[in-house]
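User: Hi! I'm working on a homework problem where we have to compare a predicted structure to a textbook description. Could you give me the structure for the chain below?
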Amino acid sequence: MAASITAVRQLTPPPSHKPAPDDLALAGTLLVEAALSAATCRDATAARDLADHAARLAGTHDTHPDRDSGDIAFGSTVVDLARALIAASFGDNHQAITIHQYATSSDAWGRLPAEHRAAHLIDITRAYLDLGNPRTAGQALVTADRIAPAETRIRPTARTALTAVLRTGTTTADVTRLATTIGLTRP
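Assistant: Happy to help. Predicted structure tokens:
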């Protein structure tokens, strides 16, 4: 968190200068990472403040006239996805799912890198599980596997989430197939 904030200070130009879109994207990405780190450290105020700062940069970045239209690694949707994970980390799973559903219904969601989308789906499964919705948690994992199989098959978080879904005993054929594919169950 401290390293990200320090780097953002170096990238942020004085108010009198118009920042370049790449600088906005980099600073915003660092702020998102710092906000997620603050949530991991259980600092709700810092997580919220950093996400708010990232959102302001995303608003500027999204509408910047010099922005490359193919530049989708940072923007409002990325900040919303981070806000969903932050809400989940503080146990506000209803809010997390609401934000997640909003962000994933945007056009920008489909333009994010496949690995980013899959990683988010894996991470949001905890909120679904905590709300007692293992079916949707399992479907999120199956969707993540379709988007970027390596994310689902290699990440320990995905294996843990899939194991939790399997333990509920309410799995679909797709979830069972995924579990077999990654070696959590026998064929």
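For your comparison, note the following. Residues 1-112 form one domain. The mean pLDDT is 86. Good luck with the assignment!
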